[in-house]
Each structure stands twice: as C-alpha cells, then as structure tokens.
Amino acid sequence: MRISLRLTPPDAHVIRALTEYGRHLGEAGRSGDASAAAERALAVHARMSRPVPADFDLAQALTGLGTLAADLGRSDDALTVTVSAVEVLRRLENQVYLAPALAELSRRLREAGRGDDALTAADEAVRTLREVAGTNRFAQAGALKHLCETLSDLGRWLNPADALTAVEEAVAVFHEYVADRRAAAKASVTEEPDLADALTGLALCLTRLGQVKQAVDAAAEAVRTHRRLADDLPVVFQPGLARALTALAASQHALGQHAHALAAAREAAELCMAWTRPSPGFFTTRQRQDLDLLAKVFDDLGRGEDADRIRRHSPRA
User: Fold this and answer.
1) CA–CA separation, 215 vs 315, rounded Å?
2) Which regions form coiled coils (predicted)?
3) From 246's CA, which of 18, 48, 110, 298 has a CA 20 to 30 Å away?
4) Do the Cβ atoms of 84 and 55 come closer than 8 Å?
5) Which CATH number is 242's domain given?
6) Is residue 70 included in any domain, yes or no?
C-alpha cells in the first residue's frame, strides 16, 4: 500500500489561527483588536502566490476569513477572499464544500451591488447542491441544509416566486430525511435545528409571497423544534428560536393575528438581547440580519419604540 503525505501550506495555519483569534476578540467585545487580527490574516492572503495553492485546509481557512471580514464590515476584503476560496475548491473538485462557498460568494456579490453576478453564483450553488444531495448519501444532510439556506436567501433578495418551489422541494426532502433518521434513532444534534432553520426560511419566503397561512404553519413547526432544543441547550439554540419567532411574528401579522404576532416578536426581542449581551459591539452578519428583520416586524406592528430599541442594540460594523 502506498501512503502519501500532504503537508498543509503554512499560510493556511496562519490565516486560520488569526481568524479564530479575531473572532474570539470580537466576541469578547474587542472589535478593534479583532479588526487588527483580520488585517494581518488578509495581509498573508495578499502576499500569497497566484493562483493560490490547491489545498483543502487553505480553502477552509479562507472561507472563515471571508466570514470574519464580512462580520467586521470589510465587504471588499470579504469578497476578495471568498473568490480565492471558491477558486481553490474548484481546482480541488470538491463539490460538497464548493456549493456552500458559492452561496457565500453570491451573498458577497449581492452586497457589492453586483446582482447579475450574484445570481449566476447562486444558480451554480443550487445546481451543485442538488447534485450532491442526489448522489452522496453521506453529505446529503449538509447539502440539503445549504440548499435550503441558499434558496431561502435567494427568496429574500430576489423575487420570492423564483425560489419558492425549490425551497419547498428542499424542505420536503430534508423533512423526509430527518424523519427517516429519527425512526432509525440516528438523527444527529445538528439535523433537527437544520430542519427548523429550513422551515424558518420557507416561512419567510411564503410570507413575502402572501401565502401567510402556510407560512404560519411552517414557522410554528420551526418554533416548536427550536424551543424543545433550547430547553436543553439554551446558549446553542436560542438564536435559532429567536429567528423562528421573528418569522412567526411576521406571518401572524400578515394573517391579521396581531396580538399573537406581538407576543412572538417580544419573546424574540428578549432572546436577542440575551444572546448578544456577552459580546457587546460585535455582531455577525447573520445576527445583524436577524435584528434588522425583527425591527421591521415591530415597525409593521406599529411598535416604533420597540423597533428603535432593537436598532440601537445592533450597531453597524
């Protein structure tokens, strides 16, 4: 038997270490120091040879750095690094990790105002995710999760009608997959919340399309799942519960159930205040999006003071 040894380029270790250090600093409320760590990691990437080495660990390190840069409000740097990560994964022909990287690239391009390029990347991500979900049983759960997230995100910033059918399809397949895993007593700790997150995305998409009764049903199922999980591990699952409650409040308001919507929104607000306290001043892109959506729900409910409180709690990066 021949054994081959592949050594990861030192740059990958440096970038990963600086990225993780920067994230810890940000979560400790030291955003300035976090930005300095990200700056050093970005400098390592900038001086690398082109094309960057086709190494999986390096691709993962660059993906993490892109996320940190985006969370720190460095959108141009986030786009540059994410493009490099996608380039590496293409040359490695790693479809399982290429698909979510393409989804991230789509988000970065959209944030840069390049809508056509963002749609092209998203379309490729969806095609790749479908292929992975259909051919690789081992990677199916992760692929379906990313498929749901990608399609739900498409529905958030493009025409929701373009994404709805695919979102429903992905959620239905994921629902069946998790049900099979439950029956076999093999469902992992990540698959239940992934399904609930997918249902949250579906609810938001349905609400934007005016299919509010179906949206309430999907969001309510997401809330039940996240609430059960949060009872055991609140620190891990409360953010997902807050997101699901926000989606439920939006759909209930659209359905005319204003008292129920206000109750769900207020519970979501209290959860958001709780899980952001340990890291004042540092919010991930996802957290800011969640808080922005919750503030909009309060505005729609005529609760301007509550909306302003949420916006004050979520400073821009």
Assistant:
1) 30
2) none
3) 110
4) no
5) 1.25.40.10
6) no
Q: Looking at the domain assignment, is residue 1 inside a domain?
A: no
Among candidates 207, 212, 205, 141, which has minimal Cα distance to 179?
A: 141
- pLDDT, mean of residues 286-299: 85
pLDDT tens by residue, 86-113 = 999 999 988 878 888 888 898 888 888 8
Within a domain: residue 39?
no
| Domain assignment present for 218 | yes
CB distance 149 to 201 below 8 Å: yes
User: What type of residue sits at position 171?
Assistant: V
Domain total in the chain? 1
**Residue 267: how many other CB atoms lie within 10 Å:** 18
Q: Which two tokens stand for residue 154?
A: 């498409």
Provide the pLDDT for residue 1: 36
State yes or no: pLDDT of 252 exceeds 80.
yes
Q: What global pTM score does this model have?
A: 0.69
- Other Cβ atoms less than 10 A from the Cβ of 179: the count is 12
Instruction: Give the Cα separation of 244 and 101 in Å (integer).
Output: 25
